[in-house]
Batch of 2 targets.
Target 1
Amino acid sequence: MAGKPKKEKQEGITVKKLENFSEWYTQIITKTEFVDYTMVSGGLAFRPDGYYAWEAVQRATDALFKDTGIINVYFPMLIPEKLLNKEKEHVEGFNPEVAWVTHTGDSKLDERLAVRPTSETIMYDSYSKWVRSWRDLPMRFNQWNSVIRWEFKHPTPLLRSREFLWNEGHTVFATREDAEAERDVILRIYELITRDYLAIAGVTGKKTDKEKFAGAEASYSIEHLLPDGLVVQGPAFHFDGQRFAKAFDITFIDKDEERKYVYQNTFAISTRNLGVMIATHGDDKGLVIPPRIARIQIVIIPIYNNENRNSVMAEAEKIRAKLNSKFRVFLDDNDAYSPGWKFNEWELKGVPLRIEIGEKELKSGEVVAVRRDTGDKTRIKLDRLEAGMGELLNEIHNNLYASAKKHLEANTHHAATFDELKRILKERGGIVQAHWCGNVQCEDKVKELTGAKISNMPFDKQGHGSDGKCVYCGNASKYVANFAKSY
RNA sequence: GGGGCUGUACGCUAACCUGGUAGACUACUAGCUUUGGGAGCUAGUCGUCCGAGUUCAAAUCUCGGCAGCCCCA
């Protein structure tokens, strides 16, 4: 019997992810209390779950950086205009998005100050003083901060915010070889973070000259595919060569007593990746937070009535205490809500694992564990509670990553001709892999005719098809490129 | 870069066209009651995005700003 139609549940997500992705994303962002809008357009408040996730990414990344010898520093948020203008390509790339401080109180500043869109210029001015000898190198510094890029496009929480949190690594080397050798070390760290913490898949590769970072000699990135078929850039690594060294006069006396310019790298991972994580894993019930970045990994829901309330609560508290040393666990003992209400609430907020404990479990010496990713219920004996929880959390992580990878692979297509490229982009979206001659004219033309850019040139595809022909001009192809519409 | 839509309480919405006491649901607070997939009763708290204009009178009409969303390049 069907019963009365349920009234609209206003706390829940009311649109389907695959039917209306952007509306779904907006609801997910606000209703799950992960982050919230503020009075500043494009400026977000990170609520406890959101900030915890960022801290988890930050902690893990920072530890890996430190293992490789990178050291943390901190530089001012404000950059004098004359510094920002020193490297031509760099300033041209960022100028439209720079926010300026022009006044203190009512008096105008003699020289206006940029709110950092990135910190190359303020850092490298100091680097020019600090680097003197080959003995000072390599100098591998990093800072954790926020930057402001005043995008004119409409901001989207996390994916396109005007202020975002990130790391910016800025390293200095004596030789080109040393600098270039750092690339794979850093990209491997970022691959590990996205895979083992955020549980998202990506394509690592080289950016085209057209799409590289303003001021860099070469850029590399991990690109992610969103559920709506758009590609968004994730962590990035830039080889700056000697461009900034020459603009900022960063030199050293080498062993051979010659004065030489240094070689530099820049690299970053940002809170945008949390947006990718949300978009990738969330479903029609709400968020799904991968266990390693979840503020609450396990929520315990006691199920009792007036007769057994005390015994159930006592057992629930015992379980909480037992798990507390190994996991981030929360016992929801709020008496004002029914178990059903709590199930929905914690599913909305994306807690990876739920434990149900009631009369039945008291008798059998078990708990019911429910996975957020699959909804599967399993019974776990109390004597192997901790081991069981650990296993389930790992399985959840692995399953989330596997499904992200599957989505990426299922939406990566190949095209041999331009017509094919165009048709796939139009009909199916996603990533289309095709040969490319390396000329910007072809890159521009494809963008003009299809709206797709080259997100990057995946490392693992280069060199395997050197006999290919450019998908646009038909000349001999040097590269395999990923074409996609981008966020 | 261009075009469009929308702002009323935490949220969703009524009153707007035709200016005249801001109302319902939800949430929140208290009490009772209930508790294995968003239970019920009673009472209470909270609101017209901001600024100007028109008017005796503005949530309502006009203009500007701010914010959010969508489409195209």
Target 2
Amino acid sequence: MNAGGRVARVLLDSALPQLDHLFDYRVPEALLEDAHPGVRVKVPLRSAGRIADGYLIEFAEGDDYEGVLSDVDAVTSPVPVLAPEVWALARRVSDRSAGTANDVVRLAVPPRAVRVEKAWLAARGVVPSGATDAASGDSGESADGFEPAAIRGYRDGRIEAAIEAGERLALQAIPRLAELPGGAWVGEWAITLAQAAARCWASARTAILVVPDYRDQDQLAAALAVFAPAHAVARVDARQSNPERYGAFLECLSAPRIVLGNRSAIYAPAENLGLIGLWDDGDPLHSEPLSPYVHARDAALVRQEQQGAALIFAGHTRSLEVQRLVELGWVHDVAPARAIVPRIIPTAQQAPTSGFAQAARIPSTAWREAKAALENGPVLVQVARPGYAPVLACQNCKQAARCNRCEGPLGLATATATPTCGWCGAIAADWVCDNCEHTQFRLVSIGAGRTAEELGRAFPGVRVVVADGEHPLLAVAAEPALVIATRGAEPVAAGGYRAILLLDGERMLARETLRVADDCLRWWSNAAVLAAPGAPTMLVGVSGSLAQTLATWQHAAYASRELADRRELRFPPAVRLASVTGATEAVAAAVADVPQGSLVDALGPAPLPDGVVRTILRFDYAHAGAVAESLRAAVIRNATSRRRVPAGKGGYRAAPTLKVRFDDPEIL
DNA sequence: AGCACGCCGACT
DNA sequence: GTCGGCGTGCTC
């Protein structure tokens, strides 16, 4: 019945789980020339006049659809933006996380920018309405004549061989700074990854480098500028405008590249993929905050299997997830040729003797070291939260001021503004103290908190520089200055810091999450690497095995011990988790449908705000496929028969959607 | 999401 | 008889 025309299978650009499969359409004769797999198309949906966007995925062999097919309405653009390998990745990644392929495709394919696309097509010698000619264009973009540098610091040829063989590595980064020929200073890790990527690109294959944030990205970009030609590098930047993003994306489509970007770069088109490099996979920024919440590490593992590229997890610390893969033999541990250990001095919290040190509650030994180091150059002070933002407290009884509506913490956006609640946003205009009913508050510094002002007072006459989320700073000069930075926001100092103080260790460890120790170790280690050769890093107020691990730089051993503990407790990443959130009955039904025997247990349902409940499922890796499959079916069922739910006063509202999230790092 | 289909109460 | 209310289900 569908004879006379090819049948195209189309993925609709829709967020609806029930539409997350391929739809068959006939391709009219006139569109055949442009209708290639991967192009954007417009197709009718249900009734004529309603047109949906989609991607042409493939041409169907037999017609497995019984009904009458509609015609593809139009080919939006002849550019095959959804490459076959990216489609395969999106499908598998979304299936494994009970999400929709579209959620992943949206990360993989940037919005179209028509002007950019026209310029790109013209440069490739393609007439806009004509067929793409993949063999043309790209003059001057090949790696011919490019000689990559040897990858330094590891056993000769070790990493080169891994790239050649498509091996999976857990690479222990070399913990020191290095100066690039241009005079910029970067972590040695950036040079290693840049050299590895250049090596891969030299053999006409794409290398994808994924970093957690723009600060790491800038270091790696600086290293790539030295070790690879500029035209080899395509940056996928969170700060790019849409046209810029689309331009970089099209570059990846035209020839092998070195793709550098944040977590979504893992989905960049790369027909001939030779290497995936993932820096600092323990950083939670690698975890996608949107459905289906996939971690770049997991997407990288899937892609590596599908395309057979080499995969390098590089870091100063070892995530428990990667350690697990090492212990399974799936990933191979590689250490630097020569052990380099930053000089780390655990300093117990002791009574400061100096008046200056007392002002900022810095142990006197640490204060003396820092004071001496400040004669020669910059000193880094890592704090949990710097700046001048102390908390509000009751003027009378000193109790911390809390929102009278929701008990959230009150804060000041600016020095003169009326305080607002950090949770509900309510303006605390007529605030009354819970405790003593006083109505006036004042700013006070809380217990362990230290302000830049206090720290500055501890080192009189020294220039103070603050670096945090609100005052981002990538680099500082080699001149004396006290650099106060939040964990994760430390600038790189030319030549390295002459001393580093890790001040708020105790406070950071006070967070009650399962992974707090791993996170702290990562924050401290990444900061310690910023020290000049031999310069001391003082870990204040923390002792025990964590301090020992940092001082001896035995990160793999730490991860191994910690993972053994998790196995005993059946906590992640020894097991996997999935949270199911939604209406009580929907969650219960979804959990009940998970195949018998695939779960370790189900925790919950626990009530959450907005009348939804959450159940946490624990299961072994071996059963993850079955769990995901059944949860995905539950999500589709829930979306299809979306009942209404009573909402007070006899009214009705739409039932909440059923949400599934695998391996939420914030849970537990 | 939209939009059509369908099966019970008040109307010319 | 039939107009239209919204619950239910489907989209190639």
